[in-house]
Amino acid sequence: MDNLSYLSNAHSSYIDSLYQSYLQDPESVDFGWQKFFEGFDFGREAEGKVAQDGNSDHFLKEMKVMNMIYGYRQRGHLFTKTNPVRERRKYYPGKELETFGLAESDLDTVFNAGAEVGLGPATLRDIHNLLEQTYCQSIGAEFVYIRNPHKVKWFRERMERERNTPNLSIETKKRILKKLNEAVVFENFLGTKFLGQKRFSLEGAESLIPGLDYVIEKGAELGIEEFVIGMAHRGRLNVLANIMHKTYKDIFAEFEGRAFDESKPYGGDVKYHLGFSTDVETESGKKVHLSLCPNPSHLEAVDPVVEGISRSKIDFKYNGDNTRLAPILIHGDSSIAGQGIVYEVLQMAKLDGYKTGGTIHLVINNQVGFTTNYKDARSSTYCTDVAKVTLSPVFHVNGDDVEALIYAIGMAVEYRQRFHNDVFIDILCYRRYGHNEADEPKFTQPSLYKIIEQHPNPREIYNKKLLEQGSVDASLAKEMEKDFRALLQERLNESKESNTYEPNPMFSGAWSGLRMAKPEDFEETSQTAVPKDALTKIAEKITSLPADKKFFKKIEKLFEDRKKMVQNETFDWAMGELLAYGTLLDEGFRVRVSGQDVERGTFSHRHAVVKMEDSEEEYVPLCEIQKEGSANKFDIYNSHLSEYGVLGFEYGYALANPQSLTIWEAQFGDFVNGAQTILDQFLVSAETKWQRSNGLVLLLPHGYEGQGPEHSSGRIERFLEQCAENNIQVANCTTPANFFHLLRRQLKRDFRKPLVVFTPKSLLRHPLCVSNISEFTEGHFKEVIDDAFVKPKDVKRVLFCTGKVYYDLLEKQQVDKRGDVAIVRVEQVYPIPYTQLKAVKEKYNKAEEFIWVQEEPENMGAWPFICRKFRNSSFNLEVISRKESSSTATGYSKQHISQQLYIVGKSFEDAAGKEVKKSVVKTTKKVVNVD
Description:
This protein is α/β, with parallel strands linked by helices. 39% of the residues lie in helices and 13% in strands. The strands form 7 sheets. Strands 3-11-12-8-7-4-6-5 form an 8-stranded mixed β-sheet, with helices on both faces. The longest helix has 24 residues, at 170-193.
């Protein structure tokens, strides 16, 4: 039995099905198969006449040769010469002839199966040589699992025709040598001039530089005008210098510490986290824009940001044409295998709301993670096995064979442009030093690093190859090194003489006309009111359904109720939100909303997209609002079940276009926990680290409704503990009109700040949570809303609160007619509206107590922040809350009610600690939706 009998059987069944198709219609199979079956039929006739000559087993062997061809296509990547410093792991069954039921004695036999690989009838020797050269040299190809036969055929024919062997011009080879020289000498120069400084060098993986260079060259040739690049810190300085063309002088200035300017209000970041953008010109004279995104040490965190930036630019700059811009993600082997964000991002690749036309993934596979051996870094065969999730092809390439890398990259870019799918290039290389240049890798990898110490760098290997070919002069590499090193020294000298330099300006391109915010900006009122005629017109449009379409009865009733709101000139939360979007669209802005179930809303309140009753057809009322001559558009997408990935994507989307109201909504506020890395490393800190503003809006359903610890708190305290330098805005609104103005304010200022809004659940249908039309047409966003019922002279106690708890307190105040207790709503918790709060303090000058009231435990919610900010003020604030807790809320309904009654009752106690009137306060609301 053959060693691959199971494979042989599968292939034989497939071949038999092809043969049956051929018998019915020869044109129904590929040309190669037609020729094979023509020979097969001729042979079968001959077999019947001369079976006695001993050749009757030839046709069975034809099948075995076909099995061998398919075996190489499917498993050849396991037997390649792709690892420059280690022996590859052994796999069984192997690729020996015996594996397929063939022998050395068959090598000179002619087989019609040669037609399958483009040879026509050919000897087994020639067929075998072609397969060995194509699938088992410096490139290992994984592609047969792709379920689209056209893609598989494209790869198969392309690779077998050229045998995966590059045929480069002398000029191309010289350019490769030049880029390798820059990569190698740059790292060596930094290592000798800045001893002991971290740089996370590319040494061992220098082939990345000519590889990236060729991505740009080939991409430009195929119509790509812009690349957005994301990568971790390893090799970033080399990429910045030799691909992005950031000046050597500026990079050296950062090493010298001269980039720091104390007069600027920025904290900055380490040099190997910084981004850069530039325009380059290819060898063929084409202009290409390059952007390298800044990224923290969370290695793959930049991936969704890159995709969001790319999609935003495709939407706005290229009118949806994704062949003109391509994202490039540069991964590490351990991070691509170990970081879940990679999976979240890959699952976006073909989704309507997030696709970018295919990402080019380059993996710097240096076979070690920090100090961890690759055998401890993953369970999968390859670090790139996650690519199979989206049926993306993978090329494993020996990093020491730079021409093979160039060839694979060229094929990958062609594939991306033709089929608009992701593609992976796994560059097997090594790391010359430890995790950083001061690290000792022999502590954990003694055997490997003995080999690496003696291993020549890629430039030396390639120069030797070119010399042996006679492709270059023996002195060329030496002259290149000498000239380039002299240039670097010259730029180093200049950097020591110059002062600080200005990095890429933020407020250019799409950000032209905007600026950095100043503290006094937060004391000014933005004009966000909308004329009544315009507002009513929009309200009528978004509450109307086409008469010729059939909708669900509940949807028709919902829209009828909304029409009544227009007639009554009173709007609930959902209408307030939709009117904000509609008015911005009418003014020429763009609105994008994404998140889990955002089209209808988690609590079934939004219904921005409605379905027909008898089909999957959709109707989006807000899409009917279009400013004449404007490219404005309303986009709303239900996301896949991802927070980290989708929030990162939307952050990137907002980063690329500040003229879009870009919103991410969490299904429940606590779901934002899963995206904490994006919050910490990008949203709250990017402006001070990288001088990059952002206007992203987060909607986080929040409020204690008895839904247990998982769905009560959006973790206000976590956002507030990161508030400083006016970096973000944190709001917890209590009226539809105030929410309306808050959303519109995002695009009405000439600066951008992230906005975090803690949105309601029960208030979506609370009878008191409504706003009159006048509040939309005459008002503006109110950071503080004062009590409208009490007389200042009668007030003895002032309750400050934020969000939904206001309505519980209001009910108690109104039922008991407590004119001595004022309830003041802090709608914007940060930046703290000091001016308005001081005015409140002065207004209630007879008050004896000022108390912060919150639903959250004492160690959570806004109180820890408020306590810290007002600790030396004249307010002398006390707090009423749930007692401190390690969990956000109780899971028991009765306990929840008891706690809520305590908070409300305590807020209205007299000085002796007793309630003035014993009234029953309804604190339980109907739970609209739970998970």
